[in-house]
Amino acid sequence: MENVFDVFEDRGFVEQVSDEKAVRKLLQGSTTCYIGFDPTASSLHVGSLVPIMSLAHMQRAGHRPIAVVGGGTTLVGDPSGKTEMRRIMSREEIDRNARSMQAQLSRFIDFSQGKAFMVNNADWLVDLKYIDFLREIGRHFSVNRMLAAESYKARLETGLSFIEFNYMLLQAYDFWYLFKNCDCRIQMGGNDQWGNILAGVDLIRRLEGDAAYALTFPLITTSSGIKMGKTHKGAVWLDAELTSPYEYYQYWINQDDRDVMRFLAFFTFLPMDEVRRLGSLAGGEIRIAKEALAYEATRLCHGQQEADRARAAAQQLFGEEPAEDAGGVPTYSIPASQLAAGMPAYLLFEASGLCKTRAEARRLISQGGGYANGRRIEAHDETIGVNDLKNNAILLRVGKKRYLRVIPA
Q1: CATH number at residue 361
Q2: pTM over 0.85, yes/no
Q3: pLDDT per residue over 393-405, tens digit each?
Q4: End-to-end CA separation in angstroms for the chain
């Protein structure tokens, strides 16, 4: 069987590795690895997909992944990559978010029959006795080395709280705990976690006299320099209630041509020969590669049925004659009485969420960027009403790619 490290390298996952020769040898057999996910929101987002996909690749190669929900470390807050301290969350909010995350991770990783585990580090961190922790764990950490870590250096000018300063110790303790109790030998994560992961490797060496390893992934940005998973509306969530399958599909199909092959390698399980074939397409044919990326990414996150619906809706909307009854398109319900009375276009665009503010809606429509049923709206205060209904819906559009169906309720 192919060594999963070769899979990672071929697909671009490897940024840093603590001992490549030893890691390759370890991955020739079967081992246990882990990645931590802080439950700071009710849903994971597209920015979490590289670590999620890495755990899925590990499982496919016969290894056992552990997804650690950071219920304990979130009570402290990770300073890595942050310019200010995170809001302190309650235990109840963290636990609620953790349950949602488990359902989302289950779409990518098989947790049945011990093939993978999800654990919450609150189970072993919350009840630690602080003095004992400092004596047994804290004494192995050099403050000078901690301050040299990128996750802390970036915060020294703006202010680093003492509670955040403890984060590296707690994450290192997680690695040691999983090493002791689950024979976990590899911790993986984004490259901003390199210092924290190495701290765990070093703690295991000091406490156990044994070897553990670190592997980090690149922090993904688009070719235009935008952080992965960000759009005009904010984060692209894995929860269908926050980002619909259609919107999720549209996020992927609208990626820059320069990113398509890279994202096919990261965010799908298509064989690399197929990834390279699709990535070599140019001109109008690049649309084929983008459709493959959007469909495969949506299928993994939301299932085949929703991916089929999203693709069908996109094909209807972006065909030669866009259809007003395309299923799967985001929908806004308006009271029938309000639609009967008519509504100025800019107010409808703002109320439906196509524009954030009335000023933005007025500006958009005045500049010719607002459409109703394929017809450009001529004036920002043009009345939209029942006469605009087709198939009991009004299809609004912003620019060339953003659609929304308005239906009477």
Answers
A1: 3.10.290.10
A2: no
A3: 888 888 777 888 8
A4: 56
